[in-house]
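Morning!

This is the sequence you dropped in the shared folder:
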Amino acid sequence: MRSDLPALIIIDMHEAMANPAAGHRNNPDAEERIARLLSAWRAADAPLVHVRHISRSPDSLFRPGQAGVQFQQALAPLPREHVVEKNVPDAFIHSGLERWLHMRAIERVVIVGVSTNNSVEGSARSAGNLGFDTTVVADACFAFACTDYAGQARSADEVHAMALANLNGEYATISDSASVLHALFDAT
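The structure's back. Tokens below.
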């Protein structure tokens, strides 16, 4: 594994996220883009981290023992790839992820997955605050429609865009999958 390349952190790409019952979402091609990034990272022997959410809540889609908690088959980790389990949205809290990255002298991370305004945003904030050079790939993340605090219905695109705006500049660089792939190939 090449620690001179950034680690690709794939967040919460569970079977449940591909289920229409999860809600109306944006970026319907996100999984395809994540798969392309995953393939490129594997080909470059770059560091990979798959994050799995294991909920403590009995009514969660991510409760252990349910089919929905399994990784989507096309994005499932290989036996040699690192898997982090988390119980809260932030992949750095009580997971050992920060230590794993530091032990390998990895200073840069690229974050993809779901949902942009929850686990992706929480993890990217921590990564930036911990000093990692952090990139969030906008077209390889997605969000779900929801109602804001004032009771206003917000589309998945609005939720996604606001989460990216929250991160841009202070915590992370926002990029797209084509640019990230181009940078990876230039580095290899």
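Headline: The radius of gyration is 16 Å.

More detail when I'm at my desk.
O.
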